[in-house]
Design a protein that fits this description.
S4A5 electrogenic sodium bicarbonate cotransporter 4, 52% helix, alpha+beta, rod-shaped, 3 helices
Length: 187
């Protein structure tokens, strides 16, 4: 019996191999798409975390500058008070009268002027923008990055030229998924 020339026979093993190959191809495409989506999501999270650290670092530097300015103001005022005997006698009388000690000796307005001089404004390192101002004995600062991450800090300066941290709030302005952060790419 002679075979016909040009005919191809597809048996069950060939059909099974074809189905397996097509299945593997589909899984490979899905794996590549999922890997791209995971990479994009991880990059967005890394950028988000970086922005938080940039704001925190700028705020920490501002607090260090404010702390140094208050310490310098206290030292300068103590030195000026030590030079004037009349001021010392008045401070001692005031300390005995109200029991508060040396805290009443400090000029809070002069200290707040020193704080105002060291407050950060505008662009600082790594794309962080700062708005800050003094309101009486309160210091308010807002640190923000371009991606909408914001840190609001508020300090209350006390009569003894120390401060308390009243507010440290991190917020994020939600951006409706810009083009570059889409997880699934089309086309």
């Amino acid at each position: 019996m002679a075979r016909e020339k040009g005919s191809v026979r597809i048996g069950p093993v060939s059909v099974f191999a074809l189905v397996v190959i097509l299945g593997l191809a589909v899984l490979a495409v899905l794996s590549a798409a999922t890997a791209q989506a995971s990479h994009t999501e991880a990059q967005a999270q890394a950028d988000f975390t970086r922005s938080s650290y940039v704001n925190d670092a700028a705020a920490a530097q501002a607090l260090a500058d404010i702390d140094a300015a208050l310490a310098d103001a206290a030292l300068a005022q103590e030195a000026a008070a030590a030079d004037a005997d009349a001021v010392l006698a008045q401070e001692a009388a005031a300390a005995d009268a109200d029991g508060r000690g040396d805290a009443s000796a400090y000029d809070i307005d002069a200290a707040m002027s020193a704080v105002s001089a060291v407050l950060p404004q505008g662009q600082v390192a790594d794309g962080c923008a700062v708005e800050s101002f003094v309101d009486g004995t309160a210091v308010r600062m807002t640190f923000s990055t371009e991606d909408g991450r914001t840190l609001d800090v508020e300090l209350a300066v006390r009569d003894d030229l120390t401060y308390s941290l009243e507010r440290w709030v991190v917020t994020t302005a939600w951006n409706q998924e810009p083009e570059e952060t889409k997880l699934w790419q089309s086309g």
